[in-house]
Records
---
Amino acid sequence: MTTPVIELSDVSRRYDAGPPALQDASLTVRAGESVAILGPSGSGKSTMLNLIAGLDRPDSGTVTVDGVRVDKLGEAGSARYRRAKIGMVFQFFNLLDDLTVLDNVILPAQLAGMKRREAQRRAEQLLESLGIARHAGAFPGRLSGGQRQRVAVARALMNRPPLLLADEPTGALDSASGEDVAELLRELNAEGQTVVVVTHDLALAQSCTKRTVQLVDGRITADVVAEAAR
Amino acid sequence: MSALGRVVRSGVARRRVPTLVIVLATMMAVTASVLGGALLVASDAPFDKAFARQHGSHLTAQFDADRTTATQLSATADTAGVDTSSGPFPTASVTPRINDATVAPLSVVGRTSPDGSVDRIAVTEGRWANGPGEIVLSADSGLIAPLGLEFRFPALPGSPTLKVVGVARSVSRTADGWVTPSQLAALTPDGKPTGYQMLYRFAQADSAAQVERGRAAVVAAVPDGAMAGAQSWLAIKKVSVRDTSLFVPFLVAFGVLGLVMSVLIVGNVVAGTVGTGLRRIGVLKAVGFTPGQVVRAYMSQALLPAAVGTVLGVVAGHLLAVPVLSETAEAYGTAGLGVDWWVDVAVVAGTLGVVALAACVSAWRAGRLRTVDALAVGRTPAPGRGRRAARLAGRLPLPRPVSLGLARPFARPGRTASVVAAVVFGAAAVTFATGLAASLSEVVTARDHNAADVTIGVSGPQAGPGGPGPGRQSTTADPAAVTAAIEDQPGTGRHYSTADAQATVSGVTGSTNVVAFTGDASWGGYSMVSGRWIEKAGEAVVPTPFLTATDSDVGDRVTLHVDGRPVTVRIVGEVLDTRNGGMQVFTDAATLRTAAPDLAASSRYIDVASGTSVQDYVRSLNAALEPLGAVSTSEKSQSDSDTVVILNSLTALLTLMLVAVAGLGVLNGVVLDTHERIRDLGVSKALGMTPRQTIAMVVTSVVLSGLAGGLLGVPIGVALHDAVLPAMGRSAGLNLPDSVIAVYQAPELALLAAGGVVIAVLGSLLPAGWAARTRTATALRAE
Ligand SMILES: Nc1ncnc2c1ncn2[C@@H]1O[C@H](COP(=O)(O)OP(=O)(O)O)[C@@H](O)[C@H]1O
Ligand SMILES: [Mg+2]
């Protein structure tokens, strides 16, 4: 059995006076797995993802990723942690509009201190393999939604993170582009990338991952491993 | 609460930083304006008020007792144009000895009472002189004598003595001291007054011509040559206002700068608020707000905090004005100066008017925007601008956060312009202020003439040439022996000595101080305005006020009366010197040889040869001087004029406020910018940008603007300085030499330009910290 990449134990998070967005959630994800976190809107999926990414801190419980106690990191520490361990893909792409595709992709490497030339070589390979190399010099505003999400994936993979997190990666895409991105995630997982995808779309969950974790009102209600993966 | 009220309230509460910036900016602008305004008023009004209260003398005329009589003079009260008059009062010029030291001659007037129809003298200390043996000293006499001090007159028959029983102030400056008329007669060698004084108030005396007409009428009413001199109240007013008039152009410049700044900042803030609030405006209009209501809502959003800032500013201005005005009151000998209510009203109305206007203009533009456009604009800031700059910056061999920051200003040219403008004003203010301080110190240096390494017989700035007084340290040592000691001393470089004499100049009231030099004093720190330094006997150099008073120019000849003997000198240069009201004549000792053969050097100025230790030199020179009863020192006299101190602290205060306001302008710009880019910041942080990198990015985003602002602001500050300084000199009756005006050096200017970057960086630090601290998850949730 492979080592756990993510270990959540009894994690709770509650915003202000509202009901808990996440309650006593425990979850273990091992290297090479692909997991979908499935639930209706407002069920706490993004909250869980943010906790894993170190973008937010739990009120109680512990979050360990690749041996790092994420819940204990300070601001600078969690930024360095994300550089090294996490690639993130968002629903609305979140590309920087005034940087070219190439500059967007190499940004995480540059923030980590890599020289532009070196970073550029890797970014070109990535763009090539994702089929968007010819758009390297374009600005994100010129690209279609599907192409933009591919750029976002390339950027997420730039630093070779052990863990790829995607929050509703197909939510802003038409179904053809959505299927395209799901296919991409599947391929990445097949090459060994650990992937966690957040979605409210059961079809997407089933098409691109082997395990589905169900969230309802901040609680994990089911954790199902697809037959094929057994 | 009405819908409009609700919108305003939530608008003020939601945009906390712009609201706070409006409060602070208006507060500082109002503080500066109240202070400046109060000083402006205080600098001019005290004389007029005090003069009116004392029924001041429009013309103080001095008559020769040998050529006219008291009866004839009494009749001049009926001269055409004379409204009221006082006198005749007997007068005499006396030279008392105080503690065995002789002081400068005093003009004493015999008066039974400080009251009268003209020149109602205010007794500020002690009481009026009621009997023989008593004198009341004028607070403006230059003598600082405690009550009870004795003046002795051993040379006069009966060796009379006078005890100081009071100090009084005549705004018209009619005498140095007052005694009873019978006592006055006892102060002259032959027991008779040498002159009479008449004080006139004319029906019309607002202009020099009117006063002159009155004087001519009086002259015509008395025997030929009876009037020995006359002093117009306009001349007194000029002298009296001279000290504070140095303030006026400074304060006007600062006041204008402060006002323009507050217009700029408030305009900026309001425009920025409206700019980022366009979507909100779109929503308001979509739900049915009329353009007029939108304008009103946004005007109130600016006016509410501005009103709070104004109230705070008025309070702060009054608090600061108290110490400053009390110094001013001291200088005028008046009390109870406060900030006039109309200054407050003008400043408050002006500030709020400016805020309302700025808010109105930008809100009106916003109110006119089509709803659809406003909704569309609000969603994403127009992209596309500054991409070339971003691409270029990306190629630079700099850490990525820095190059991202550097490219930022090009994306929002409008906002960048407002940040640059804020820095321009800050840099201009600092440049202006440092120049002012430098000029002031040059004036003080020029006035102290303390270029010499070592001095003998110079005890302080008041006792230097032109400052005779009882505190004067007189050297009893044999002058020739001292000179020999100096010349024999190894290490002596250049040296010269000065001797002081009193002189009168025909047509000029009061005494003129003559400083007679032995040796070349051209290196002594005398700043020439025009012409050259004296080179031989018969030549003289004089300050601007002397030229004005005698209506002469460089190249003219004037006749001085020293001990009653005429000495004619040719003026070869104009020098900067403010002592004795600028009534000084610098000449070679040889010029006075016949008029004042006994004149002995009292002060000596020595430059040690290069390579000689000043301390060692003083020690060994003092060993040689000791048997002669003289002592040398290397301590420099320093002027501690109240005016200079007040001016320097005011300058520092106003500069600090202007820099703070400039910093606020930058802060506001950066806050709006980071607010707008909150999502991008969140993304960058999600990709691994550390807080430190975030701060670096935000701070570098203003570096170029700061540099541009510094480069533009410094020349503006220099130009302002070069325009204000000569104006300031003129209003004080002085022409300023180049050394005072050309105070900026290239390295200083470079530093000042770099100061623009400092202002920008300081202004951006706070919002940069906020940006680094915003929760990434929250930032990403923002649309
Ligand atoms: N920053 C926040 N402040 C306050 N409430 C939040 C915040 N983020 C999420 N929530 C609330 O927490 C609950 C879970 O949100 P989220 O994790 O975003 O749900 P999901 O991603 O499943 O739609 C929701 O009720 C949401 O309103
Ligand atoms: Mg979500």
Note: The first strand of chain A starts at residue 4 and ends at 14.
---
Amino acid sequence: MNTPTPQDGGQKRTLLQSLELDTRLLGMIGAFVVICLVFNVITDGRFLTPRNIFNLSIQTVSVAIMATGMVFVIVTRHIDLSVGAVLAICSSVMGVMQVQLLPQLFGIGHPLVMPLTVLAGLLTGAAIGALNGWLVGYQRIPAFIVTLGGLLIWRNVGWYLTDGQTVGPLDQTFMLFGGVEGTVGSALSWGLAIVFSVLAVFGLWRARQAKIHHEFPVKPLWAEGALMATSVAAILGFVAILNSYAIPVGRLKREFESRGEVMPEGYVDYFGLPISVLMLVVIVVVMTLVARKTRLGRYIFAAGGNPDAAELSGINTRMLTVKIFTLMGVLCAISAMVAQARLANHTNDIGSLDELRVIAAAVIGGTALAGGIGTIYGAVLGAVIMQSLQSGMAMVGVDAPFQNIVVGGVLVLAVWIDIQYRKRTGEKV
Amino acid sequence: MSHRGTPLVEMRDISIAFGGIKAVDHVTIDLYPGEVVGLLGHNGAGKSTLIKCLSGAYQMDSGAIYINGEKAEIRNPRDARAYNIETIYQTLALADNLDAASNLFLGRELVTPFGFVDDAQMEAETRKIMGRLNPNFRKFKEPVKALSGGQRQSVAIARAVYFNAKILIMDEPTAALGPHETQMVAELIEELKAQGLGIFLIEHDIHNVMRLCDRASVMKNGQLVGTVNVKDVTDEDILGMIILGKKPEGVAC
Ligand SMILES: Nc1ncnc2c1ncn2[C@@H]1O[C@H](COP(=O)(O)OP(=O)(O)OP(=O)(O)O)[C@@H](O)[C@H]1O
Ligand SMILES: [Mg+2]
């Protein structure tokens, strides 16, 4: 929708044109591959082990989830500087709920603790997001100011909720959102991989059928096939890697003992897909559908491209702003679930500086601050690239200040490359 | 008055000011079904501002709007659309980053049974209507910022006429069009008029006004100079009204 596909003006199509691939996306994937390979060489192959890929995945999820929402915020020419602080207050609410309030009511480990905790977190995020949206949309306070205020307010409201204390240990079921504690095992992972592959192929095929139905040009069959094969290979490959990360023997032994059994000799089991990664996948699919296939998504991009035109077309742009910020708040709450469960407790500095990571992920992923342009997958890829850079540098032993210098440089470089790219494709920036 | 029945639109005693500037100052105009009323005046006379009160883009400070004889509350563009009022804005009001079909259906998307926007269907409809308005139009996949001024104008016109408007507001619809496309819009106006639509046409070209309009209302400095039957006057008379702000002697409206 927002990347123009070149018209075939009779001349021979190049390979890329036949595939109708987003060259921007290819560039980002290329950059990511280069980063991975370089770190892998420097670390003597430690970067691309199943173990590190697993850790990278669960570390990226929290920022990536929020980045999908930030795309909508930035596309409509707003900004949300408060996402880290909102994450923190959602986390503190959920911490207090599951560690203090609910166990007093129901007892520790009661099955209602997790759902009620999650509900409280989501409501907190939605309420703060809606308030932000109302202040921006109806009261016309610039989003920069509203959320800069929120950045100072919400983390510190969270501090008062918990007296600045670390809150833990968390509910056992809740811990499943974190990653290491919550994976679906290798059998189910394969099952899901097959389901996702089938869905991907089906989706591509349906899109093609729709085009044929309306007699629009379609790409050659081989190109469609190649695209399907690549998607399936990527899905199966990723799952294969996670499925080859064996659960440490000590931990398996403990699990058997807790069930009163003895672990058979030579028993191995694998982590498989983390639940948090599955949550991210579902969110990415849903957000992409919202962006491309719903009226809400259409209005978001229209309002970003020309707010006056959107209003004159009968779109309630103020209400739209409330919806976008509410969605952002809910995503912050989901990120809070993942981040808190991964760290195994709530601390007051949870999600510090996440606003910058989230904005950077969206921007590296091609979301234009001028509005109207951005993709969900780009933002997620942006988050993955940043996390790989940071983890890779940590692994190599680059000290923290220099890591920040590099990430900052990459942010500016990414936007510069984007501008050059748009100039070449003739787009106005 | 030579007209019969209730007018489709009556804008009575409309005023609106921006800061100290009275952009529209106690203006009354009306429009009957199957009629084209030209709105004329120098730059900044208040033509666009007046019709924006009808299209819901601006809220008038005082005055009243009657549609089919009944008082209408038009607070925003959604209200105007509910009265079947469609507008081609002087600024075109297109979302530059979206393609022609997305713009044409903006706010009124066609959806599939699952509630998802039906892009393929919308593009097909867009191809149909553009085939009538501007057969040379090819850029269906590009965002409209990649279109020429005239192509953009065609998209804006298509959007206004696609949805079975009863009242059509056209603010300088042919300003960016070539002679051939202008001719096609002229034919379109005749056709819509024959279908019984009422059209407010803001137009600077006096020959187009003489050719297309039944009546002409002239504004100067926010005030209405007067309304004349086009067939009772010469283009000199109308030019006189625009420039001198005086109504010609002995002409009824
Ligand atoms: N949003 C606004 N804010 C302040 N002043 C405005 C606004 N819109 C219009 N005006 C002023 O109102 C007056 C009438 O403007 P309007 O756009 O209605 O003129 P017009 O007759 O359409 O002129 P043109 O032929 O150039 O399109 C002008 O003096 C203009 O500066
Ligand atoms: Mg005007």
Note: The interface with chain A takes residues 55, 57, 76-78, 81, 87, 89, 91-99, 102-103, 106-109, 111, 115-117, 120-121, 123-124, 138-139, 141-143, 145-146 of chain B (CB under 8 Å).
